[in-house]
C-alpha cells in the first residue's frame, strides 16, 4: 500500500469521526453525512485528476476556491453567535486579551463555557491574535492562516528544479495543481468546517507550525546550519502551544545531534553507524536549548512576575490546562516513539507521514486512557474530555502526504528504451 493511500485512510477516519460525533447530536442520520462526504471527496479527486496537468486552469480554480472559502467563513461568522457554541477556544483568547488590556491577570479569567475552564494557549499565540481581537472577532485568524498556508505551500512547491521539491512532487503535477488539491481536501473536510463554526484555533495553530516547517525545509534551516535562527524559531513556536513542540521536535531531532559542517546523520537502516565523533558539539546543543528556553521565559515572564506577593502564576497557568490529565508512562512511551521516528525518516515526505502517524497515535492513546480511566461509565461521544479536535493537529501533514506523493513509475519513453535494449540484447 502506497504512503499517500495510507494518508487517505487517516483523512477519512478523522473526518468520519467528526461526522458521527457531531451530526449524531442532530436529527439527521450520520450515515447520510458520511455518504455525502465520500461523494464530495470522490468529486475532488476526479476534478483534480482532470485539471492536474493544466497549471493555468489550476491557478484560476485555486483563486476561485480560496475566494469561495473565505466568503463562506465570513458568512458563517456573521450568522453564528459564538456565545451559543459550547466550545471555548475562541473565548479563551478573547477573554485573555480582554483581561490583559484591562490590567487583570489573564490566565485567571475563565471562559464562557464554565468557571473551571481557563485560557490554555501560550502567550505568543494570544499576541498573534491581537489584530483580530481588535477587529472584534478572533475567528478572522482562520482566514489569515488559510491564506498564509495556500501561499506558503505554493511557494514551497514552486521551482520544481529545487532539490527539495524534486524529491516530493509528482512529475505530472505542478505547484498550482498541488496547492489546489491541498486546498480542496482541506475545504472538503468536515473537521475543518467544525473548526470554523466553533471558531476553534487548534488546526489554525497547527497550520502555522506547518508553514514554519515548510519555510525551514525550503531554506535548509536546521541545527546543522543556521542553528541560532533555528533555535529562535523553535522558541517562538514553543511559545504558542505545547502541541506545537511535537512536529518541530520530530523535524529537528536528527540535525540537533549533527555537528556543524558535518554531513547528515545516517538514516535508519543505513550500514553506517553514528559514532561519538559524529555527535553534535555539547556546547552548541546547550546553547541552542538555552536560546529556546530564554525565548519561552521572556514570553512568560510578565505573567510569572505579575504578582510577586501571591505568585498567582503558580496557582493558575496554561501548563495546568494543557497537562492536567495524562499518564507518565504513556508520556515516556510516546517520547521514545517520537525519538525513534525522528531518526527513522529519510526525506521530508516520510517526515510528514511519520508526524501524522505519531500525532494520531499520541492523541488516540491519551484520549482513550483518559476516557476509560475517568469516564468509562458514559458513551465516548458524550465524553466532553474525549476531545477529538486534537486529531485535526495531524491534518496538515496528512494532506501533504496525500498531495506530495511521488510517481514511482518511470516515464513511458524510458520504459520503452529499456524494453527495446532488453529485446535487442536477446
As a whole number of angstroms, the C-alpha radius of gyration is 23 Å
Q: Based on DSSP secondary structure assignment, what is the total number of beta strands? A: 0
Our measurement of the CA-to-CA distance between the termini, rounded to an integer number of angstroms, reads: 34 Å
The oligomeric state is single chain
Shape: globular
Q: SSE order, as H and E?
A: HHHHHHHHHHHHHHHHHHH
List segments where confidence is low: pLDDT < 50 over at least 5 consecutive residues.
160-171, 263-279, 406-420
Q: Tell me the fraction of residues in β-strands, as a range.
A: under 5%
Class by alpha and beta content: mainly alpha
Report helical residue fraction. 55-70%
Give a concise summary.
This protein is mainly α and 426 residues long. It has helices spanning 3-23, 30-51, 55-79, 89-102, 123-128, 130-135, 140-157, 163-168, 175-187, 190-198, 202-219, 227-238, 245-256, 282-304, 318-322, 328-344, 348-374, 395-403, 412-425.
